Amino acid sequence: MIVIKGSRVVTHDSIIAADIVIGDDGKIATMGRGMRAARSERVEAEGLFALPAAIDSHVHFRDPEDVSKEDFSTGSASALCGGVAAIMDMPNYRNPPTTTVSAYRQKLQIASSKSRCDFLLRFGASEHNQQEAAESGAPQLKVFLTDTKSELSCSKQAAISHFRAFPREKPVCVHAEEQSRIEERQKHYRAHEKIRDKLVARYASEFVLEQARKLNRRVHLCHLTTALEIEMCRQLPNVTYEINPAHLFLSISDLKRLGFLGKVNPPLRDRREQALLWRCIGEDTIIATDHAPHLISHKLEGAPGFPGVGTMLPLMLNAVRQRRLTLEQVARICSYNPARAFRIFSKGEISAGADADIVLVDMKKRWKITAENRLSKCGWTPFEGWEVRGSIEKVFLRGTLAYEGDGKGGGEVLAKPGFGREMKPRQ
Ligand code: DOR
Ligand code: ZN
Ligand code: ZN
Question: pTM of the full predicted structure?
Answer without folding.
Answer: 0.98
